[in-house]
Amino acid sequence: MNLIRALGIDFNVAVTLTDELTLATVESQTPETALSVARENRAELKAQLTRQKLASLSLSSVTSERIPSLSLNGDYGWIGLKPDEALATRSVGLMLSVPIFDGGQREGRISESRSRVRQELIRMKDVSDQVTLEVRNALLTLDSSTQQVTVAEKGLSLSMKELTFARDRFAAGLATNIEITNAQTSVARARDNLIEALFRFNASRINLARAKGEIEQLF
Description:
CATH class of the domain at 29-67 and 124-218: Mainly Alpha
Distance between the termini: 19 Å
Shape: rod-shaped
Number of strands: 2
Structural class: mainly alpha
Order of helices and strands: HHHEEHH
Largest sheet: 2 strands, antiparallel
Number of helices: 5
């Protein structure tokens, strides 16, 4: 279930593991490096940045409405009944537009646009903080799961040695089948622990890739 959740797929989808669980090599990375990658890749950050820019552009557009504008226009042509009698005509116009009082509508739009900009800034911080939290938690989980695999591997190695020792004792007539059975049970339990640890490790790798926005590159 943890693996399915990390992959972000439907829980009703049947998942079959075709590869052996192994402790894959993971490139060492600092939280700063992982966060830098996440800020470049995470779709929600890109989308929020776009909304923030649009809000700022809207504010700039509304604010510019209260600035006087000056426009220049001109025209050049010919007038006459016959081409050889036509006279050249020229006209030049200069227009100055000065915004006047509009009952506070413009200021209301400016206030609304500023409020929208502030809201998008707050949303950006919320999204950024959430991404930061996910990346840092994913790194901590990956580190913890890596250590669990190391412990499980040592546990399996120790149980295998104990099984060998029990068999040697049995061959020498110093132990019974019970000691061998107990040792075999310990080996089976140690193998299960290692499989579980490897599963958690690979799930944590997927979780980190998702937090960094690199889930596609993992497969």
